[in-house]
């Protein structure tokens, strides 16, 4: 390959990367898979904010106006997650959905509530250490408390990295104070949820008969077939956990 050919190829690769970055699909090696944060990560967040035509809200009254218009929704705590010192408990609808789904999964995985410490913040209420390019004023970002439980941190970081690789969010583990900053890309996350729901529905349509044996429990049966106890109960119309040897259960398969 000649020097001219190399230059042409390099320019082509740069052009492709620029196109992917503009579409939100480009992931910089390492930086997007470490939770360390970077200037490139901030670029992606701001590109998505502009692509969604999000306003950078500047005052308290504008936050309330956006909520009145339905562009922001109130985030209300439930048994799976709580809010701590959140001045403006509002977010884009897709962010609220993300919190509900993640909260339920987080509690099921490690037994404690997910703690949200920040949501929409107007530009005039940004803390001193906030980046001037923060997307918190758009309503598409949230902060999560850094758990003292190592297993909970490991689970959460694994989920955030997986979703980041899927191109549906950007996540950073901040140090001062320790917390996770997450910017959710609404359209991409909505498509992700639709895919997950379709996959779940497909799995539930395929079932097999299983005859309960002595010593079985719903938990052991569900675990051995790679499904949840709730799915097993739902398919069989069970309210409690009592089963008996010889009982025939319908078990969703992964086909």
Brief summary:
By secondary structure, the chain is α+β, with helices and mostly antiparallel strands. Helices cover 44% and strands 15% of the residues. Strand 6 and strand 7 form a beta hairpin.
Provide tags for this entry.
single chain; 255 residues; alpha+beta; Muramoyl-pentapeptide Carboxypeptidase, domain 2; Membrane-bound Lytic Murein Transglycosylase D, Chain A; 2 domains; 5-stranded mixed beta sheet; two-stranded antiparallel ribbon; 8 helices; 15% strand; disordered N terminus
Explain this structure.
By secondary structure, the protein is an alpha+beta fold. The chain has 2 domains: 24-192, Muramoyl-pentapeptide Carboxypeptidase, domain 2 (2-Layer Sandwich); 206-252, Roll (Membrane-bound Lytic Murein Transglycosylase D, Chain A). It has 8 helices and 9 strands. It has a 5-stranded mixed β-sheet, sandwiched between helices. Strand 6 (169-174) and strand 7 form a beta hairpin. It is elongated, with a radius of gyration of 22 Å. Mean pLDDT is 86; it is low at 1-32.
Explain the layout of strands and helices.
Layout: H1 3-23, H2 39-51, H3 60-68, E1 73-74, E2 81-83, E3 90-91, H4 93-110, E4 114-118, E5 141-145, H5 150-165, E6 169-174, E7 179-184, H6 186-205, E8 207-211, H7 218-224, H8 229-236, E9 248-252
Parallel strand pairs: 2-4
Antiparallel strand pairs: 1-3, 4-5, 5-7, 6-7, 8-9
């Amino acid at each position: 390959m000649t020097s001219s050919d190399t230059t042409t190829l390099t320019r082509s690769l740069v052009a492709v990367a620029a196109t992917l970055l503009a579409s939100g699909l480009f992931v910089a090696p390492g930086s997007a898979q470490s939770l360390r944060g970077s200037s490139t990560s901030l670029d992606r967040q701001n590109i998505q904010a502009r692509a969604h035509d999000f306003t950078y809200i500047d005052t308290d009254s504008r936050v309330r106006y956006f909520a009145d218009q339905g562009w922001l929704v109130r985030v209300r705590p439930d048994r799976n997650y709580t809010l701590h010192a959140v001045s403006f408990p509002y977010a884009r609808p897709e962010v609220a959905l993300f919190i509900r789904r993640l909260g339920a999964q987080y509690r099921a995985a490690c037994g404690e509530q997910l703690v949200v410490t920040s949501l929409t913040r107007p530009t005039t209420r940004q803390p001193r250490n906030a980046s001037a390019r923060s997307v918190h004023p758009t309503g598409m970002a949230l902060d999560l408390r850094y758990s003292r439980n190592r297993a909970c941190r490991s689970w959460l970081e694994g989920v955030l990295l997986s979703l980041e690789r899927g191109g549906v969010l950007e996540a950073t583990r901040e140090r001062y104070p320790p917390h996770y900053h997450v910017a959710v890309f609404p359209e991409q996350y909505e498509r992700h949820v639709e895919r997950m729901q379709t996959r779940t529905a497909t799995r539930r349509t395929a079932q097999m008969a299983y005859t309960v044996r002595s010593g079985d429990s719903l938990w052991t049966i569900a675990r051995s077939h790679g499904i949840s106890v709730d799915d097993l109960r739902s398919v069989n119309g069970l309210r409690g956990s009592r089963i008996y040897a010889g009982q025939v259960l319908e078990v969703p398969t992964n086909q």
